[in-house]
Amino acid sequence: MLLGIDTSGAVSTAVARGELTGPAPEILAVRSDQRSRHHDEVLLALIEETLDAAGVRRDELTGVVVGRGPGPFTGLRVGLVSARSIAAVLGVPLHGLSSLDALAHQALAQHGAGAGEEVTVGVALDARRREVYHARYRRTADGAILREAEPAVDAPAEVAAELTACDLLVGSGTTLYPELLPASADLVHADAGHLILAAATLAARGLDLSGTEPMYLRDPDAAKPTARKSALGR
Length: 234
What we know:
Elements: E1 2-6, E2 11-17, E3 26-33, H1 39-54, E4 63-67, H2 73-90, E5 94-97, H3 99-111, E6 119-126, E7 132-139, E8 145-154, H4 156-164, E9 168-170, H5 172-176, H6 192-204
Parallel strand pairs: 1-4, 4-5, 6-9
Antiparallel strand pairs: 1-2, 2-3, 6-7, 7-8
């Protein structure tokens, strides 16, 4: 049994039957909370709700899959710390991958392209500061999903041409900048069920998913002061 957690934008949790190796995991339950600033308040309750919906006890989990972002500092930290704690307490493996991978996987699953058809996907997430986190993917004729451009953060106008050239364009960035980044599907935040399925496809290709460091792509908004000011402000 696998637990999936993503807090790159909204909060999403999922429980699946199976493992990352072998047959594709079966998603049993998915729960989400669309609020973007309440991760620490809702995540643990959402995990319990998802486990109950799947009819799975926490001690039945054999692995945890977590989204590494990119995303806001606080939200990612809540998800990663919770995933690491659960994996450590249960003594099960922890697997990490980009949340952009999950959105690309979901977009391709919903697209329903025919066998042998190559499809490209652009993903753009709200990065605040009038920027977007983005990456590009290609599903090849043999069904493999390959990342063509590594996750980065830029102004929407700087990446509009390459993202809109993709067959599909999804993510919360499309809702904020629809004129520059028109969405091709109503997919805004990463889904933890597709996070698990994307991890399974990557594991099947032999990719290492042991890294769980957050993908911030830039420094946190809050910066430590370089010098202490006196009480007189000097």
